[in-house]
């Protein structure tokens, strides 16, 4: 057995199941705000393509993917992130993935040296794949508390130079999970300067980039920042995107990685052995998805409507604010976050995720403590009902003195 498996923490939802042991929620319908699985309808055109291309299961897919898929992705990314024609080569600077989760994990296995003193720097709170990828690649995770910008962005200025010298890979998440914070151009400039000085690679998880308020500027991506900073080769930089959140297709397992051609050449070699080529009918469906923006705009409007409906209900009872992007709320809780989540489930049959399950103690602080993550992925009616139950729960607890 690989002894590194023993270093892995239980996944957040395993912890949540353990937390709920012995509870007896009321018989009213359960509403889950705990997992970020989109529930909006999948685009009909994508499902049609998927069905019409099922005959392609008779063919082995290539690890590098169909040229038509890479071209569709490059066209989308160039338009979305203002990269300029010809500045993202679909043959050398882009690979399809079976979703960002698979790519974020396997990228670390390909990039890291495995030496005992190597580090992977991660924001805190974080997506747990970052930690698991580091540990199973033989590195140690180093967590940077997200204390900048009102508790949203990782404070990379707090990291000692000696730590950067040991760093081989940095994971970013912008827009952030769970706080929705978005990195700006100066944030990228400072991190890129550190990468050049200390020789590490940056892996930017941008799977929430298309969920933002329809009337504001789209979140800045790392490749776009590179272009604006005259780094046309995207040296040391790769970005990960997915159709799961953008297009409500979490079960399609389709995404891509793009950026530094040297990194991706090494990653392609790894993936050829890994055996993770995307099925051809999934590739065909993905082409349809990347070529259409109408369903993405409708998706944004649906999330905007849910935030508009839910926040006025919760604001009198919780310290909560609309995120810059993404579909999570990240409120402070009036009691311990585990106690809040367990009692809310037991009394109102609503599940939220304790913030401490998404973070680790770093510099004596666990930045997820006394917060919970709420994913507004269900229907607007269910999200409103959940907010009303949460408000009722807090009001009742306030009145009986248990808060």
UniProtKB/TrEMBL annotation:
Its EC number is 2.6.1.17. It is an enzyme of class 2 (transferase). It holds the Pfam family Aminotran_1_2. Residues 31-390 form the Aminotransferase class I/classII large domain. InterPro entries: Aminotransferase_I/II_large, DapC_beta/gammaproteobac, LL-DAP_aminotransferase, PyrdxlP-dep_Trfase, PyrdxlP-dep_Trfase_major, PyrdxlP-dep_Trfase_small. The keyword Zinc does not apply. Keywords: Aminotransferase, Transferase. One of its GO terms (molecular function) is pyridoxal phosphate binding. Its cofactor is pyridoxal 5'-phosphate. GO terms for biological process: lysine biosynthetic process via diaminopimelate. Gene3D superfamilies: Aspartate Aminotransferase, domain 1 (3.90.1150.10), Type I PLP-dependent aspartate aminotransferase-like (Major domain) (3.40.640.10). CDD domains: AAT_like (cd00609). The keyword Methyltransferase does not apply. This is Succinyldiaminopimelate transaminase. It comes from Vreelandella halophila. The gene is dapC.
């Amino acid at each position: 057995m690989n002894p590194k498996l023993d270093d892995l923490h239980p996944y957040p939802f395993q912890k949540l199941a353990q937390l709920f042991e012995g509870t007896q929620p009321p018989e009213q319908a359960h509403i889950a705000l705990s997992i970020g699985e989109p529930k909006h309808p999948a685009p009909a055109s994508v499902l049609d393509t998927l069905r019409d291309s099922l005959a392609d299961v008779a063919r082995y897919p290539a690890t590098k993917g169909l040229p038509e898929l890479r071209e569709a992705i490059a066209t989308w990314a160039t338009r979305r992130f203002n990269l300029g024609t010809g500045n993202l080569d679909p043959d050398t600077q882009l690979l399809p993935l079976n979703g960002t989760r698979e790519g974020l994990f396997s990228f670390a296995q390909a990039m890291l040296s495995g030496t005992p003193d190597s580090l992977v720097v991660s924001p805190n709170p974080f997506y747990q794949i970052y930690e698991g990828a580091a540990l199973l690649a033989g590195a140690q995770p180093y967590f940077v508390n997200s204390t900048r910008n009102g508790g949203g962005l990782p404070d990379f200025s707090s990291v000692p130079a000696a730590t950067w010298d040991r760093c081989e890979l940095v994971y970013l998440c912008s827009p952030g999970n769970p706080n929705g914070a978005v990195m700006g151009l100066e944030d990228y400039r400072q991190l890129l300067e550190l990468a050049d000085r200390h020789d590490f690679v940056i892996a930017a998880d941008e799977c929430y980039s298309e969920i933002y308020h329809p009337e504001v500027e789209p979140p800045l991506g790392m490749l776009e920042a590179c272009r604006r900073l005259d780094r046309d080769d995207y040296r040391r930089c790769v970005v990960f995107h997915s159709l799961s959140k953008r297009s409500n297709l979490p079960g399609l397992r389709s995404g891509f990685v793009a950026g530094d051609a040297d990194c991706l050449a090494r990653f392609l070699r790894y993936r050829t052995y890994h055996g993770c080529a995307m099925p051809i009918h999934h590739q065909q469906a993905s082409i349809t998805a990347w070529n259409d923006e109408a369903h993405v705009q409708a998706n944004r409007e649906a999330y905007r409507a849910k935030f508009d409906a839910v926040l006025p209900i919760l604001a009198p009872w919780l310290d909560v604010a609309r995120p810059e992007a993404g579909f999570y709320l990240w409120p402070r809780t009036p009691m311990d976050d585990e106690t809040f989540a367990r009692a809310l489930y037991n009394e109102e049959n609503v599940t939220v995720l304790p913030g401490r399950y998404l973070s680790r103690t770093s510099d004596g602080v666990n930045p997820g403590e006394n917060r919970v993550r709420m994913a507004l992925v269900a229907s607007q009616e269910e999200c409103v009902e959940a907010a009303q139950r949460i408000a009722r729960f807090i009001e009742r607890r306030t009145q009986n003195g248990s808060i």
